[in-house]
Amino acid sequence: MTIKFGTDGWRAVISETFTFGNLRLVAQAIADYVLEENASNPSVVVGFDTRFLSDRYAAEVARVMAANRIDTWLARADTPTPAISYAVKHKNATAGVMITASHNAPRYNGVKLKSCFGGSASPAHHKRVEQLLERNLSTVHGPNLMDLDEAIKRDRVHKFDPAWAYYEHLSNLVDLDIVSSGELRIVADGMYGSGRGAFSEILARGRSHVHNIRHEMNPGFGGIHPEPITRHLGMLMSTIQSGHWDVGLATDGDADRIGAVDAQGNFVDPHRIFALVLRYLLEKRGLRGKVVRTVSTTRMIDRIAAQYGLELIETPVGFNHIADLMIAGGVVMGGEESGGMSIQGHIPEGDGVLLGLLLLEVMAAAKTPLHVLVEDLLAKFGPAQYARTDMKLTRPVEKKEMVAMLINLAPEAIAGVAVEKVETVDGVKYYLNDGSWLLIRPSGTEPVLRVYAEAPNDERVKALLGFGEEMAAKA
Hints:
Helices cover 38% and strands 23% of the residues. By secondary structure, the chain is an alpha/beta fold.
């Protein structure tokens, strides 16, 4: 049996590799890791999303932790990943375990491992858990288990609601009075994930009107991937267009990602949300610091940072790279193209709920519709159109080999525009002298090759993607 942790934990297909038996083995390895980190007073926070059997899986993790004499806080109900991450820090826990496969298809489930600072565990810590798992398997050391009711009775497992401390923390990062003053009409699309109801609960005491859709318990996510991108947001777009709504906010399966829809029914992608919120934090709040973005994120962020004389840092894909810089300090905002973003003062964790609230604050403060704010953003820091395509792989791709091939195949120009430089921060990225770029990289979590492009117009984006797909096919 091979269980490998990716950039944010372990994910696998339910009933194939993600089984109760395998999960208990992983939980024992995590328990061993926790005891290495803190032998005298170990504690763990355990949460779960809305997927099939997630609550049961979380209970099994708690049973293993209790049997290893680790003080365990078990969420009472499905909860956003950032709420669990915040609870780890709030309770000074040694680690956190979140049962979720995030934005992946319904057939998947997974384990996200959180560190004591309230963000994803480092690659080194994931590797240590893998080593402990392999050691336990080789020595035939099965998982320790304790009856859950007995563990609760003995005070080794404590059931709790992580939402309220998390909501209170968010209220210190977002000016809810400004949001309330906007009297915004909001459609909140939970995508059947664990962010369902979060916006309506946080904004309940103000003058915002929140209408929830896809907030019922549905472990099959209505047959879609719970990922807030255009092709999965048809219901949100049609709801917005059929009524008098100002904005739609969609969170993914575990609410660490965000997408939006404006009053005209247009999708507002994370690049634009990132840019709008960053500009607001710098202009209106006067915040200053480093700005961090992943290699696949819009260069509008670079232009905004440059206008304020701020350092821009580009990282590989994966929020853990942003988190490392946030932990070191001095970062005003960090984000990635998939919708994971965080700001100064928050945990180093992508948070779709926080960014949705900040977007509402931007709109309310400006007293301006979202589509007008986007037009103004593009006029000042664009133009910037973006698209991504995924090519399914028939066989595993060795990243180093592909990077070497793509560098060797690097052209002097793409679609008639000169290539200025080639970077290999994560995959291969071609920068063109009109401000556009093309990125080709294998996914860290799925058997696909991703091709990304940003350019001044859709026609150029299409040309770049077409060229990128040809390059990828050759490589």
